Amino acid sequence: MEWYIILALVIGIAVILFPIAYVWYLNMGGIYAAVRESRKRRAILEEKTETVTPDTTARPKIREVQVSRNRKAG
Predict the structure, then answer these.
(1) Mean pLDDT in the chain?
(2) Would 13 be classed as within a structural domain?
(3) CA–centroid distance for 64 within its chain
(4) b or e along 30-59 (b: 16 or more beta carbons within 10 Å of the residue's beta carbon)?
(5) Residue 4 to residue 25: CA distance in whole angstroms
(6) How far apart are the C-alpha atoms of 58 and 43, rounded to whole Å?
(7) Does 31 reside within a domain?
(8) 38 in any annotated domain
(9) Into how many domains does the chain fold?
(10) pLDDT tens-place string over residues 23-58
(11) What is the DSSP string of 43-62?
(12) Nearest one of 24, 23, 1, 21 to 13, comparing CA atoms
């Protein structure tokens, strides 16, 4: 192959690939921003949910209290 054919191929490939890479970069940037915003909104929603919902895991359930009262001492 002559040098001018190789040069034309290199320049042609670069001209074709540059817009493709640029559009891919814009798409990935938009996806990244959407995911980041979604995570931020989810964290805010979870904080609101935690403050509204009382913590009931420390209290014994009714069945547990009844079973512990029915045990005989000693």
Answers:
(1) 80
(2) no
(3) 39
(4) eeeeeeeeeeeeeeeeeeeeeeeeeeeeee
(5) 31
(6) 24
(7) yes
(8) yes
(9) 1
(10) 999 999 999 999 999 999 988 888 877 666 555 555
(11) HHHHHHHHHHS---SSSPPH
(12) 21
